[in-house]
Amino acid sequence: MNKLSIKKGDEVKLLSGKDKNKRGKIIRVLPKYSRIIVEGLNVHFRFSRPKKAGEKGQRMELPGPLNISKVMLICPHCGKPTRVAHEVSDEGNFRRCKKCGKTLN
């Protein structure tokens, strides 16, 4: 399993693809595949068939998985896209913003 620098609930910026420069919140992390699912980005459409007679089918919008290398974490303190530094101390392991130096929760 891969160790990732971002977690569920973090805000990220997309670096490439059809939704380039858009921001979104991570709703699911798939560390086994190095992929994440971001709310409102990489949206695909799924169609459901009607279950009963007289019922209509639906078109559902579902966010698809993105490779982790295509996104960059947005620091909640300075609001800029940043790389993540890992800091080990007596209290535990922390993530730190490379731009402003503050710890990320």
TrEMBL record:
Keywords attached to this entry: Ribonucleoprotein, Ribosomal protein, RNA-binding, rRNA-binding
Coiled-coil segments on the chain, per record: none
PANTHER family reported in the protein's UniProt record: MITOCHONDRIAL RIBOSOMAL PROTEIN L24 (PTHR12903)
Listed InterPro entries: KOW (IPR005824), Rib_uL2_dom2 (IPR014722), Ribosomal_uL24 (IPR003256), Ribosomal_uL24_C (IPR057264), Ribosomal_uL24_KOW (IPR041988), Translation_prot_SH3-like_sf (IPR008991)
Top-level division of the source organism's lineage: Bacteria
Cellular component annotations (GO), alphabetically ordered: ribonucleoprotein complex; ribosome
Protein name: Large ribosomal subunit protein uL24
Gene coding for it: rplX
NCBIfam families: rplX_bact
